Amino acid sequence: MTSFKHCLRSTGGVMQWGLLWKHIIPQSKNNIYNHMDCRFLCTTGKHLHSNASLQPIQMAFSSYENTKNPSPESSKVLLIMHGMMGSRSNWNSLSKVLHNKTMWKVIAVDARNHGDSPHSPEHTYEHLVEDIRHLMGTLGIKKASFIGHSMGGRAMMMAALKYPELVDKLVVVDISPIGTSPQLMTMGKYFNAMQSIRLQPNIPLSAARKHADQQLSSTISDKGLRDFLIMNLVEKGSGQYTWRINLDALANNFMSRIATFPKITSSFSGPTLFIGGSKSDYLKPEEETDILKVFPAAEFAYVKDAGHLVHVEKPAEFLSLTINFLLKG
Of 39, 136, 222, 235, which alpha carbon lies 20 to 30 A from 104's? Predict the structure, then answer.
């Protein structure tokens, strides 16, 4: 039996992931959890004081937690942040498996300028870190384990370096604090291609996404990548379509503030796992020596035949590595 609570409107995407989950985790009396979606927080709970020069936003999030027979494990928290142009919905099925296997409370967030979170002209790793810290303070979470993919991985790394007292274990998915993949330098053309899309009003979403795919195909040959980007196309009312992500803010901040990791002036000695794709160049084995200077307890694993979207292309392998690491020790 499954209990769902929503503090924002339900979407078709949520239901589709719920149906998918039934094939991953059999329903049973012991498999009872609460799934909560929050666009913003209305609580007046204790807040950690954020850096005065960095104004945090209230991130939208989905929470997966026990609602019956709480155990010591259910007091542990796992925070997940997606990559550039992604959203928490990309992690729905994985979050459910991670909750079921660990019995921890799992919270997947929408980073600022993504998903259902507020838009802001400011988009830096420093801001992302303060958003994470602010959410933890709002929810009364003193310490959590972190998972982050790509941009989210760098945000979680920086949070661990800046506020190590907040982090139990850290999982970084296919991104490095040292090098920068040449593929990141192509992001500009993706932003330009998406900004140039022109769609007729008052057509079904399926037709709008088909037309967007046709226009993007002249610039982006990878169908899988186009499908990923087009997931951000939404109807804004009156038959018009728009991008859910804040394209202008992401494009304006990307090269100077997101493409490279900020200067490192500290280290994080807690348990850390880097998971890379064997076919990706976002995390390279030759960078391990330098990474260990910053994360001295780091372990490294490379999933065979996986690219940058390791958790999407090889979910079983990703989950096995992650769950074993989180439960170890």
Answer: 39
SS (H, E, C) 35-49: EEEECCCCCCCCCCC
Which sequence positions are flagged as catalytic? 150, 248, 308
Cross-sheet strand order for the sheet of 3-6: 3-6, 33-38, 61-66, 105-109, 77-81, 144-149, 167-173, 272-277, 298-303
Nearest Cα neighbor of 247 from 181, 196, 174 is 196
Q: How far apart are CA 118 and CA 111, in angstroms?
A: 9
| Three-state helix/strand/coil letters over 203-222 | CCHHHHHHHHHHHHCCCCCC
* E runs forming strands in the chain: 3-6, 33-38, 61-66, 77-81, 105-109, 144-149, 167-173, 233-237, 240-243, 272-277, 298-303
CA distance 213 to 37: 29
**Structure-token pair, residue 56:** 């945090």
By C-alpha distance, which of 273, 256, 84 is closest to 169?
Answer: 273
58 close to 112: Cβ distance less than 8 angstroms: no
Token pair, residue 80, equals: 């997940």
Give the strand pairing for 144-149 and 105-109: unpaired
| Residues belonging to the chain | 329
| pLDDT, tens only, 146-185 | 999 999 999 999 999 999 999 999 999 999 999 999 988 8
Which residues have CB under 8 Å from 55's CB, separation 6+?
122, 127, 130
Which amino acid is present at 40?
A: F
For each of the domains in the chain, give its residue range(s) and CATH number, in order of start: 61-179+261-327 (3.40.50.1820), 183-253 (no CATH)
pLDDT digits (tens, 9 = 90+) for 207-265: 999 999 999 999 999 998 999 999 999 998 888 999 999 999 999 999 999 999 999 99
CA-CA distance, 172 to 146, in Å (whole number)?
8
- Contact of 106 with 65, CB cutoff 8 Å: yes
